[in-house]
Every structure is written in C-alpha cells, then in structure tokens.
Amino acid sequence: MLPASIQISGELLSGAEVQDICESLKEASVRLLSVRGCQLSDRDFGRVCCGVAESRSLAQLNLNLGVVSSISRTRHLADALKTNRSLQTLFLHGSPLLDSGLVELNSALSSHPALVCLDLGDCMLGDEALGLICGMLPPDGAKSGLRELTLSANPGISSRGWARLAIAAAHSSQLRVLNLDYNPLGDQIAGMLAVAVASSRTLEVLDLEGTGLTNQSAQVFLDMVENYPTSLRVLVLAENAISPELQQQISDLLSEGEEDDDKEAPPLQPGPASSGALLPIRDKHQPPAWLPHSNSGPQMVLLTSGLGESLLAETEM
C-alpha cells in the first residue's frame, strides 16, 4: 500500500482521532501529516510526537498555527526529531517558539539526516535563534544543509542578525529558496541580500514581499540581474514601495535567464521525485500595520514541496 496523507485543519482532535493518527504513523502508512491550527491536549501531542519518532515513512509534518504552543511541547518535538530519520519538511509557522524554543530544537534540527525544508515564519524569533539557524546553512563542502528556509514575520530579528543570515546564505552550498516576507528589512538589508544572491551558486527564489523596500533596493537588484550571472529565478517584491516598471524590468530579465537555461538543460527524466511530490501551501503572514501602501499588481505566491521541487502560481491575495 502506498503511503497516504492525513490533513486536518483547525479542529479539536479527540483522543480516538489522535490514536488513529499514531497507529498510522507507526505502521509507516503516512507520508504527510498536517494538523495545522488543531487543538489537542498536551498528552495527545506527546503521543503524536511518539508516532513521529517511530515513523519510517513520514516526509512532511505540518504543525503550523500554534500547535507547538509551549516549551514542553517543543521538547517533545525535539525528542521525536532526534529519533526520526525520514522527515524532509517541517512546518512550524505561527508557533510561539521564541529563542528559547529554537535552543531546544537546534540539536535535533541540525543533526537530522533528511531535513531539507524548514518553516519558522512568525515564530517570535530573535538574533539568538537566527544564529542557530545560520548553523543549518553550512558553507560549501562542510555538510548537507537546508534547501528551503522560511523566516517570514519575525520582526524581533535585528539588522545585525539579518546581516549574519546574508553571509550564511551567500556561502551555503544547498539553499535554493529563502522566504523573508513581512520582516521590516529596509533597503540596507536588501543590499546585503543582493550581495548574497550574487555570491550564491544555488539560491533560486528570494521572497521579499512586504519588507519595507523602495526603488533604491529595486535598482540594486536590477543592476545585479542585468550585469552579473546569478542562479536567481524568482524575486518577490510585492507589497513594497517599488514602482511597477522596475518590478517588471527585473521580472523580465529573470525570465530571460530561465529561458536560456531551459534551452541548455537536458530533458527531465520522469521519476519518483517528479511524479510523487507533495505540495503543501506555505502559510503567508498577513501584512503588518507598518507596511506602506504598495503599487504592485497581482502577487506571486510560492508553493513549495520541500522535496527539492518548487511550484509557482499567481493568484490575487
């Protein structure tokens, strides 16, 4: 029997439902488990974590929107991740982890043999946590690391912290997708990120939606994509004070680069990764109060598989 998925959203989970989830996890019959926004007792959360620890098939775990609501639950999750060997994608968006929670999770996340996609958006993180996250983006040749990282809506991180992340991203040998939307970055940090993009040989997607940028940042990115070779294929600049004309110029140049690469690349061979990819939608944070009025048109929303695949779709937000 092929591994299935369990997806429940915003419900109060009974003990019987939790028992069914745990049995499915232990029987290696679940590839994706999503209980985003669900309510369950601390005891039942511990039972789910035991199931995660024992699962040999689970590839994606979605605990978004407050499921990991205390330091004790964070410790249960950390213990599960230390034993689990199959998980590739972990979503914790909207969990009040704080820096102390990342300290508890750090060893399990950093040493996990399969984890490649991590969503820590809106987790109330600061510079201490970001320093630990940078350790999950090892420099070239050191060891494997994250391919997709989401840090949306963590306004407690300082300019110094973001600068440290830019350096780590520039030297990472694995990172392909970096989502920093709805953080008050400003033009100075955007300039650092542009240097990181120019230095990186792997970064293909950078989401800077609603990060307080102006035309100054856009001009820097335009100069970069116009004059220097880069792996970047998608740059999201919606909900910023950037003219539509500049956004379109950047988009056109990135599209031209992608078309050139498509001509040179060999045809894709069908296989398990392309036919069986899981495509959960990343939770987008709501625009914060400090966000200026945007002149942008339809927004680009990134759908990520967490398994080395990315799917882009345009939608009106």
Description of the molecule:
The chain is of the alpha/beta class. It contains ten helices and eleven strands. Strands 1-2-3-4-5-6-7-8-9 form a nine-stranded parallel sheet. The chain has a two-stranded antiparallel sheet with strand order 10-11. α2 links the parallel β2 and β3. α6 packs parallel to α7. The longest helix is centred in the C-terminal third of the chain and has 21 residues. The chain is elongated, with a radius of gyration of 20 Å.
Biggest sheet statistics? 9 strands, parallel
Low-confidence stretches: 268-277, 289-317
Helix-and-strand structural type = alpha/beta
Secondary structure: number of strands: 11
Strand line-up of the largest beta sheet: 1-2-3-4-5-6-7-8-9
Our Rg estimate from Cα atoms comes to 20 Å
Helical content class: 25-40%
- What's the shape? elongated
Relative strand content: 5-15%
H/I helix tally = 10
* H/E topology pattern: EHEHEHEHEHEHEHEHEHHEE
- The span between the termini is 38 Å
Mean pLDDT score:
86
Short description:
This protein is α/β, with parallel strands linked by helices and 317 residues long. It contains ten helices and eleven strands.
